[in-house]
């Protein structure tokens, strides 16, 4: 027993004095090291993501729909104090449901030496419009002017859409007028937002007036780009204008676009447009002819109804005259019944109320 105890003590002492093996350190990690054995960097030493890294992250979130990663991306920007224009403008479209965070990012830019530009402001206005925050949108639109910048089409469009969505029709129309006074050309989105707001408010006449302006602008753009040889831009606006409900390009737009395709050596497209223009012209002619025939049929039906009503009145007038003649005969006979005569006079007077004076009728009293 003593020998066994001595052996055990000797083994324990050997283990204590021997250096630790790799198996003994399994699962342990020295302090301030990573899993690969490198030293862990402090938050201040972590690499700041480049603008391309932010753009790639934003695109990945958009493709995957992983909205949960937005908070992590915003936290990274705050931790690394990356509030430059490209990073903030890239992240803003992801914050449609977090407008407070969007406002916070824009507010942090000047504190870290960055000035918001029109891209940042337009992105913020879009977020505020989707969040139905018209007062905030007006505040930051005024901030654009206070910053010495001139609002562009995208800023005006985002503001008008935000005001129109919130039912602030008067404010939307006022800024639309300001837009035209500054010489800023409204785009289709701007027109659509204003027209929808006016229609919702029951101001149909104003909506139709702006709709006509939108149609004229689209036609002018098609003709202008075609004459300048920008076939791609002309085709773009031609496709846009033909897919928006009642907007229809006119003969001038078709002719300019056909000529531009001929100059650009695209005869197939020019021939396609020519056939389309001819087909639409024939369809319009047939529609006009059908409308003319329908109007003529309506006129004939109305004339037939008028004649039928006139004949009915003539017949009623003749019956009244016959009744008056019969009443005169009854009054002239001896032994007449005064009660029957009184009843016949009252009935005859009642019938005359429904006849015009030209047919022997009398005007209604009271």
TrEMBL record:
Cited NCBIfam families: PPR (TIGR00756)
Domain of life: Eukaryota
Segments of skewed composition (Basic residues): 1-17
Pfam families with a match to the protein in the record: PPR (PF01535), PPR_2 (PF13041)
PPR repeats by residue range: 117-151, 152-186, 187-221
Protein keywords: Repeat
Compositionally biased spans, kind Basic and acidic residues: 290-303
Residue ranges with Polar residues bias: 31-56
Organism ancestry: Eukaryota, Amoebozoa, Discosea, Longamoebia, Centramoebida
InterPro entries, sorted: PPR_rpt, TPR-like_helical_dom_sf
Gene3D superfamilies found in the cross-reference section: Tetratricopeptide repeat domain
Stretches for region Disordered: 1-56, 284-315
Record-given protein name: PPR repeat-containing protein
Record flagged with keyword Amino-acid biosynthesis: no
